[in-house]
Specification:
Layout lengths: L2 E10 L3 H12 L4 E4 L14 E2 L16 E4 L2 E5 L5 E5 H4 L5 E3 L1 H15 L2 E3 L2 E9 L2 E9 L2 E12 L6 H5 L11 E10 L7 E6 L7 E8 L2 E9 L9 H11 L1 H4 L2 E11 L8 E2 L2 E3 L15 H21 L4 H29 L4 H12 L8 H11 L12
Parallel strand pairs: 1-2, 1-11, 2-8, 5-13, 11-18
Antiparallel strand pairs: 3-7, 4-7, 5-6, 9-10, 10-11, 12-15, 12-16, 13-14, 14-15, 17-18
Length: 397
């Protein structure tokens, strides 16, 4: 006979979005449990580790030094021929500000959840959802080889972009290859680069994606790339592309890798719904990764707070039906959806551009002062120097 536990809210997945949802659910009075299939929060790391600091006040984070490896002034974006656009941290988006130690970051988000009253169970993975009268009521799980029944009025799936919870709940369709970015990264030491900036390289060196350099300390950085899966023809892997780039650049070729990670991320548009009776998704599982950059930490944190606060509201009201959960849908979509769709359309356009167009695009922006980064600001800069390119972007106006 399996052991049985009862909670108000069950969060499946102990990443930043899951921990944040648990934190705010517990903080607002819900008896909350997080289950995590791995034996350690935050490990193994599969992330470029760049993150802005724009969300600290909103999520009541007082000290970011415990998980920060490097603080940067902004970002530099390079075209294939070497034109460079430099933008400030404030303008650069959700992946620029600090480069974190992601395992420490994730653990700190879990710590905050525990301090708010949430429980955690490691090496515990969901086997199936419990469904009664058309509503989800928890999961059957396994922990250290033993069967476990965990009943909860509300299940929050925070189990990543390939969410098993989302598939079990019937919320997912297959993601097309063009909306999946496959990535490979080294942490390299002994390299030469400006450590005050994160660096991004556009063009055919990373087809359909980009190369990144995120500082991690003196002469050390995460050097990686993401390539849209539909751009891979089978002749080369992402690692092959990165190895070729490193060998071709003196500033990188002198260095040595001290670790490597590989993975993939969905760079797709928001789904029609992330809720069913008794269940909702959050973070990468709800596909709030920025389609342009592949970064999902900040969006996941913001949505996680919304999810946790609303989960506690559901407990207080005793409402867990899909109709009531539409308020959660409205809250997170009002906050994130417009930008996600805009960046998805920009991603779709970016994957069609050749190296010559990237050269003209960055060249046209490198000698003007941008006080903001927006589609209109970019097009205004392009029109001044390369008016013939405007036709290329007519569908984005």
């Amino acid at each position: 006979m399996s052991e049985s536990l009862e909670y108000d809210v069950l969060v499946i997945g102990g990443g930043p979005a899951g921990s944040t949802a648990a934190r705010y659910a517990a903080k607002n009075g819900a008896k909350t449990l997080v289950i995590e299939k791995r034996q350690e929060i935050g490990s193994p790391v599969r992330c470029g580790e760049g993150v802005s600091l724009s969300w600290l006040e909103e999520l009541e984070i007082e000290d970011y030094n415990r998980w920060t490896a490097a603080r940067v002034k902004g970002a530099r974006i390079y075209s294939p021929s070497g034109h460079m656009l430099q933008i400030t941290e404030k303008m650069a988006g959700d992946e620029v500000g600090v480069v974190c130690e992601r395992d420490l970051f994730d653990k700190d988000m879990a710590r905050l959840a525990v301090e708010a009253g949430a429980d955690f169970m490691m090496k515990t993975y969901a086997v199936s959802l419990i469904e009664e009268d058309g509503k989800f009521k928890g999961v059957m799980a396994r922990r250290m080889g033993k069967e476990l029944e965990i009943r909860a009025e509300l299940v929050i799936g925070a189990d990543g972009w390939e969410s098993q919870v989302g598939r079990w709940a019937g919320l997912y369709e297959a993601i097309p290859p063009k909306d999946i970015m496959t990535c490979f990264q080294y942490r390299m030491t002994g390299i030469e680069f400006d450590e005050d900036y994160t660096h991004f390289y556009l063009g055919s060196e990373a087809p359909g994606g980009y190369v990144w350099v995120f500082p991690k300390g003196p002469r050390t950085a995460n050097v990686g790339l993401g390539i849209h899966m539909s751009s891979l023809d089978g002749s080369k892997t992402p690692k092959d592309y990165l190895d070729e780039l490193i060998a071709s650049r003196e500033e990188f070729s002198k260095g040595e890798p001290v670790d490597m990670v590989a993975g993939a991320v969905a760079v797709t548009h928001p789904p029609e719904t992330v809720t069913v009776d008794g269940l909702m998704l959050v973070g990468d599982a709800s596909r709030v990764v920025d389609p342009m950059t592949g970064g999902g930490i900040v969006n996941g944190l913001k949505q996680g707070k919304i999810a946790g606060e609303f989960a506690a509201q559901c407990v207080k009201e005793g409402r867990f039906d899909k109709e009531y959960l539409q308020e959660y849908e409205k809250r997170w979509r009002d906050r994130l959806e417009n930008r996600l769709w805009r960046n998805y359309m920009a991603k779709e356009k970016a994957t069609t551009l050749d190296d010559g167009t990237f050269d003209k695009l960055i060249d046209s922006l490198s000698d003007i002062e941008l006080d903001r980064v927006s589609i209109m600001a970019i097009l205004e800069g392009v029109q001044k120097k390369y008016p013939e390119l405007i036709k290329e972007f007519e569908d984005m106006l």
